[in-house]
Amino acid sequence: GHMHHERMISLEEEAPELKNAAKKMINPIEVILEQNFDWQGYNDGYGHPETEYLENKLSLIRSEFRLAVDKCIDIRRAEIGELRLHQIQTSGISNRLEAQLAEKIKQLEALIHELDTQKILSVENEGMVAPAVYAYRIGFIRGLEQYQQEKLFAGSTGLFNQ
């Protein structure tokens, strides 16, 4: 039984990492939303000063966001699957444990519902994706204005061509 005991210890040691992993589950969405959209928009507005480019890029931001949400939903569904399995395996042992498992499953289902809602909201640039879309659009307009001042207006006055 000595080997078994050692395995138990190593699992105990890994437990904190597992807890951290659970905290990082939302990551796919954060990775998308933590980009500097204002800066991206500015560079794009300056480099590609066209409405069509802006619309395409906003569409891309929305679809990347929805993909990230789908990843999060998959992770949460897998978690529910594991909890359900655990529920079956430990059925009848402890009412408290069963109640805790049921509560955790309910929380995860609520989270999945919220994530689904965010996907729907993103279609109209609303919800969690809104700040990213707003920042990109504002940046794009600033880049576009900078482009116009430098390229279009500067030359036409004749002041800068001396």
Features of the shown structure:
162 residues; mainly alpha; 6 helices
Number of helices: 6
Over the alpha carbons, how many angstroms does the gyration radius reach? 25 Å
Low-confidence stretches: 4-15
Q: What's the average pLDDT?
A: 86
Judged by helices, strands and strand pairing, the structural class is mainly alpha
How would you characterize this protein structure?
By secondary structure, this protein is mainly alpha-helical. The protein has helices at residues 2-23, 27-33, 37-47, 51-89, 95-122, 130-157. Helix 3 packs parallel to helix 6 (130-157), helix 4 packs antiparallel against helix 5 and helix 4 (51-89) runs antiparallel to helix 6. The longest helix has 39 residues, at 51-89. It is rod-shaped, with a radius of gyration of 25 Å.
